[in-house]
Predict the structure.
Amino acid sequence: MPVVEGLNDYQLFRACGPLYPAFAIESLTSIILGFFFTYLALRIVVRTDVKKPINASWRMFRDYITPVADQWWTLMKTWPDMPNKPCADRITYCRNLNIAMCLAQAFAAFFSVFRWLHIGNVNGLRYLGYAFTCSLMQAELVVLIAPYVPCYKFNIVSVVLFTHAFLICGWIGSLHRGFLFEDASWELFQLSWEVSDLVITSKGVAIGITTCCLAFLCLVQMPFLCFCYFWAGGCRAHNDLPYYYLRLMFAVWFTWPAFPAWWAVSAEGLGVLGDAKSNAVGFAILNMISKGGFTINMLKIGADHRRRWPELVPTANGTQNWLVGKLQEYESDRKEKKLVGTEGPEKDAELKEKKLVGTEGPEKDAELKAAGKGIDTLWV
């Protein structure tokens, strides 16, 4: 116990790494327990009226999700055609990439609670979330100006794979304990200031690769895209270029370097700050600023393009996003207004009867409710 009390938060953060299997198994058993009793509750509700409630529930869920997923995937497969598409179509494509980015980050955030990938007490889902979402952010920067990017297909594929790989490399580096250099060589370097005295560790190799890759994106790839944007006439309003493209670029340019900076001082990295409680808080705030700012600027780009060139924005042709249609049905007061007058006289009378309950006094309410006394309910 005295040994444990002598450790700071950073040292405890690393020392508790071997407890990962216990945390993961505890979370898994809690989820199994939750699903088990959810199944029992479902059986109680459906009784014997539904022979296979799990299969029926899955099919119901699939029928609701499939239209959205099909719409999204059909659009995603058009990425090779983006250089031939107008700006409005490219903005629509990037908006759908943003949907995937936000959902992936939400998935990583919620499932981090279960600690299934907290290997060595390092949140692996955080890094997997970065690897997926940051790749999509880089892809959006290319797609928005696709007609003016040389070697478009090579550029977008390589930057997505490159971004994904170096962030996974950063996760690997975080799993290693210790410093970037061996302690003895670091002490010798502080005395001699000779670079040849430094002996790099496995952690130092992984983090060094990650840092160089991030520097390449910030100092080569993104300035190259800015050059393509200005060369195509982006310094003035252009009907085939997003006017606020640079805002989107800066949302990445100025926030991404903050992540390794925070990593360096946090308990997950070099432990400059001994307080491990601030570790996750810092990463969460940076995530909201970076990806939240990126998404807001992406929405502003779409709104600005529709305002400047409304004649170039494609019309819906009577079609509507599946999810929008479903949500509008359940929007406050909208569903009732939509149904009255469209379902026939019997349905209209039923809706009006429901509306009258509670407004005609207790005697009238009792009379209206008496008509449905013998009807079986879901819960009986």
